[in-house]
Amino acid sequence: MTHDPGVEVLENPSHGFAGVPPQRGGSQDAAVGEICAELRVKLYRSGTGLSIFSHGTSAPGTGMWHQAPLEVSAEELLERADRLLAIWRDQVVFHRTTDPGFGQRVGGRPLAESVDLTELRSLTDPLVAKLAEEGFDLLQVMLDGTGYDLGRFREFLLGTLAGGQQLRISFDSEWQLPWPMLAVDPAGCDSPWEAFLGHRHQIEQARTGYAWDHAPLGRRERATASLNKDTNLDHVARAHEVHKLLEERSLLTVRTRGSELLAALSRSVLHEDVMYFWCHGRFVSTGAASHVLAVQLSDTEDIDGPVVQRKRRSYFRSPQARFKPFVLLNACHSAKAADPGRLKHLGQELIDQGADGVLAPQIEIPEAFAAEYAYAFLDRYLTGGHTAGAIGQWLVRRFAQEFNNPLALVYSLNGGLNTRLDLVS
After folding, report:
1. If 0-12 CB within 10 Å is exposed, 13-18 middle and 19+ buried, where does residue 330 land?
2. Residue 188 in 3-state DSSP?
3. Which of 102, 108, 279, 287 could bridge 230 with an S-S bond, Cβ 3.0-4.6 Å?
């Protein structure tokens, strides 16, 4: 039987001087004097089952690691994750009104028709409590078992996630779970909102493999961005404001046809710091039991992972090529990953091709909310003063506090936790 060796660097003899120097001005995402600890959790195959590994730092120069075999199967874990996504889809996005209040209609979808849900607290408060319990249940299922090592690991991880310190957490796994929607024990929190991992911490689905050098662009005065949109969504509130924001704060390219996007992807160097998609996402059948996620702009051209791979195959990992945008993929389902061994979905392929990160919703997302979320994210990201991970957590808290709306937790960050707009490369 063969075993994959695991290597973890526990010391730092260079004391950080071998790494990338801090961004100018330092981090603006943490309070002055605050140490934002980092935690990496790796979920991987081990023999016939799964194992979990974690390493974290609570202060510079210190760290410890934990490892244990899991007793849950990958199949059950994925089924439980799909169940959690279905609960959010059916009970939040597709919730139907059967006993309407003033100004509501029977059969309406009140939680999807408005961004501000403060007047629907009688509906959202018990629902958020239930969602937090379901998120905690999935975390418990993943860590459940009688093994001694697993028990110690469970004690460490649950205690760390539920602790008072804010963390930057990278979940490294070929199985992409809805990490922001998982939760610690709501009974130990002041409110159910605070139980969600996406509310407590900055979270990403970590990219795997080594990064590579891209063709440099040099210093730029303004960011470059693209808006890849379906004009049928122009009617959505704030959609035009997002367009205007990008136009004012960047050198903007607007694409409304798939052929235009594919032509851009066919070039070796793509001069884009931000790539924004405002369109629909759908699953396209590729066989009897296989589907791949695709998006469409204003035409019927399907843009999916395989076509992106084909257009950029000759540039893959080439130092003469460049593809490093931060991607806001604002299309339904577009954060959902294909199962291992299947054709990669669009977001996964963009990461493989070098994107600095992909932020996208894991289920259907109401159009009004998606536009509001995009405006708030891009307005903050284009300042260059905040990382994508920090903005994602800020948005979860903002929509919870100001609008009593949990849908920001649906957005998942694939890579890009520490990515911020930088006009020097």
Report:
1. buried
2. helix
3. 279
pLDDT at residue number 235: 96
- How far apart are the C-alpha atoms of 71 and 308, rounded to whole Å? 37
CA distance 239 to 330: 11
* Token pair belonging to 256: 């409304």
Question: HSE-up of 226 (CA within 13 Å, CB side)?
Answer: 22
pLDDT at 29: 53
- Rounded Cα–Cα distance for residues 385 and 363 (Å): 29
Cβ count within 10 A of residue 282 = 15
Specify the 3-state DSSP secondary structure of 299: coil
Helix (H, G, I), strand (E, B) or coil at 310: helix
Neighbours of 318 (CB within 10 A): 16
What are residue 278's DSSP bridge partners?
229, 330
User: Which residues of the chain, if any, have pLDDT below 70?
Assistant: 1-35, 58-63, 99-107, 288-289
What is the chain's Cα-based Rg? 21
pLDDT digits (tens, 9 = 90+) for 234-250: 999 999 999 999 999 99
Q: Which neighbouring-strand residues pair with 224? A: 251
- SS3 state at 261: helix
* pLDDT given at position 332: 92
Q: List alpha helices for 1-120, DSSP H.
A: 74-88, 110-113
Is residue 293 within 8 Å of 283, Cβ to Cβ?
yes
> Tokens 């929190």 label which residue?
189
Q: Please write the tens of the pLDDT for every residue from 13-27.
A: 333 333 333 333 334
Any idea what DSSP says for residue 298?
A: S
Q: Which of 200, 185, 131 is nearest to 155 (CA)?
A: 185
What 3-state class would DSSP assign to 411?
A: strand
Helix (H) / strand (E) containing 160 = helix 148-162
The β-bridge relationship of strands 326-330 and 274-278 is parallel
- The answer to whether 328 touches 364, Cβ cutoff 8 Å, is no
CB 140 within 8 A of CB 76: no
Half-sphere CA count of 44, side-chain side, radius 13 A: 15
Unique residue bearing structure tokens 């954060």: 335
Q: What is the pLDDT of residue 9?
A: 37
Backbone phi and psi for residue 344, each to the nearest 5 degrees, phi listed first: -65, 140
CA–CA dist 347, 420 (Å, integer): 19
Report the distance separating Cα 290 and Cα 341, nearest Å: 11
CA dihedral 255, 204, 200, 10 (to 10 degrees): -150
* Cα–Cα distance, 276 to 297 (Å, whole number): 12
How crowded is the C-beta side of 239, counted as CA atoms within 13 Å?
A: 18
